[in-house]
Amino acid sequence: MNTLKLPDGTPVPALGQGTWNMGDDPSKRRSEIEALQRGMDLGLTLIDTAEMYGDGASEELVGEAIQGRRGEVFVVSKAYPQNAGKKSLPQACERSLKRLGTDCLDLYLLHWRGNVPLAETVEAMEALKGAGKIRHWGVSNLDVDDMEELLDAGGQGCATNQVLYNLTRRGPEFDLLPFLAQHRIPAMAYSPVEQGRLQRHAGLAEVARRHGVNQIQVALTWVLRREGVIAIPKAGSRAHVEENAAALELVLTERDLAELDQAFPPPKQKRSLEMI
Length: 276
Ligand code: NAP
Description:
It is built from 10 helices and 9 strands.
């Protein structure tokens, strides 16, 4: 498994697993748990969830999937912005811990920026760390100006910024990814396969055909080609998670990358960070 390091040196797998919408449909539960466990077997041991997903249903499903295997997994969850205050964050964290069936989160993120001052969230995150409730903290959906403000507000402990990044959302390449790299903060790419839509995008077809792989695998390898980027695709079946894990074997050539640049041009100027 390719790994990269958080700012404090903690290794994490470059390819993890997302869980948005998991736990919503009882008829899919078995397949979703099986997919997550198969992913763990294959080394995709970073699992991303959030209190928002299914109103806690995703955290509960993850809790079930990792039961008896907690030590193998790097669990990431996220707090709503309205829960990111001094009093509300510890309460939200306790609820997430309970649903996940664990006593400590590996990484806890502010899901997006709201009305709570960043300095207060930093203080609340550091307090949770001091109390042993979380091992690392980070943010999500923060563009460069917010990241600058975060660092100025004492947020040097920020371990990641989880942002929308894939072939059709290349805006962060212009300034956010270089900013994060400069501060040695890994980026975590969410919706790395554009919620499945890249499976049918004509711009990937030729590269996939040449390598004898599917388009999702090309899209994932493309995200992972960049140093300091973690990808967290969501796969609801064993077959999909196996395909995604196999993307780690794929090596894109200069020709592939040039063709992908033609089909999905890199940004020439600042684009505001997009959110899904
Ligand atoms: P995504 O991972 O880009 O795409 C998921 C979709 O792709 C699902 O429909 C899945 O289908 C399909 N898929 C996955 N592997 C496939 C394969 N090998 N072949 C064909 N289809 C495949 O989208 P996402 O779920 O939005 O993003 C990933 C994770 O990022 C989320 O689950 C969540 O944990 C996180 N996220 C965070 C934020 C944020 O604001 N921080 C926002 C969005 C997402 P199946 O389910 O049928 O496998």
